[in-house]
Amino acid sequence: MEFQAFIDEMNQFQTRQKIENYRRLNRFAKPHQVVFTGSSLMEQFPLNELIQREGLPFLVYNRGIGGFVTQQLLEVLDVCVLDLRPAHVFINIGTNDMNGPDFSLSDIMGRYEAILQKIKEALPETKLHLLAYYPVNAEVGKDGPMAEALRFRTKEALLKANEAVQELAEKVGADFYDLNAPLKDAEGRLKAEYTVEGMHMYADGYKAVLEELLPVLRTLRV
After folding, report:
1. What is the rounded distance in angstroms from the CA atom of residue 149 to the CA atom of residue 138?
2. Pair 144, 197: CB distance under 8 Å
3. Which of 28, 117, 127, 142 is deepest in the core (most CB within 10 A)?
4. Backbone phi, psi, residue 202, to 5°
5. How far apart, in whole angstroms, are the C-alpha atoms of residue 44 and residue 128?
6. How high is the mean pLDDT of the chain?
7. 183-209: per-residue pLDDT in tens?
């Protein structure tokens, strides 16, 4: 087996294992709480560690899966959202769909809308919260493992995508939050000190995101 094929097979195996682990964990979860779901930018959000001292009156479950695109989340939405029967769902999904030259923003938003409609049909009382896509820093990532993806996931592409997500939120009756202000440098890029390789963030970057989100979390009722 070629090395890249081996890596791809291992990644697929790890994704299947995460899904199965979440499926089993969901049996022990408390319903009507708060779920965060999406791709690696959500999976790597250390939510429980960061909110321990905040005294929030609900539990938070992170059901992000690294590498996920919109279609994958749609296919396992039972595991990542529905089985938990949450009162609130926070979603950040779609940036991995933008990692190549031929992505269609309208197609991404179509699949994103299908995700939201499926939640609304299964859990009509669940409140939907859509997060803006985070900024990136191509300069930091130019020699790293995300360099190719950053050719397409540009600042300009992300701005257009966030406008589309906001429009989608308005269309389906969801809330939209742009939490990016403290993440950006003077040129609108993800601050170099916050990012691992131009795209993903360290814990202090997520802490900055959480500080923006806490006023929203403190208003939630479960």
Report:
1. 9
2. yes
3. 127
4. -80, 175
5. 21
6. 95
7. 999 999 999 999 999 999 999 999 999
Gyration radius of the chain over CA positions? 17
Those residues with Cβ within 8 angstroms of residue 22's Cβ, 6 or more apart along the chain or in another chain? 63, 65, 79, 80
20: DSSP letter = H
Contact by Cβ (8 Å): 206, 172:
no
* All residues at 6 or more sequence positions from 134 whose CB lies less than 8 Å from its CB, including other chains: 41, 92, 95, 158, 180, 183, 190, 201, 209
Q: Are 207 and 196 in contact (CB under 8 A)?
A: no
pLDDT of residue 38: 98
Alpha-carbon distances of 155 from 68, 73, 158, 174, 182, rounded to whole Å = 21, 24, 5, 24, 16
User: Which amino acid makes up residue 173?
Assistant: G
Full set of structural domains in the chain with CATH: 32-46+58-217 (3.40.50.1110)
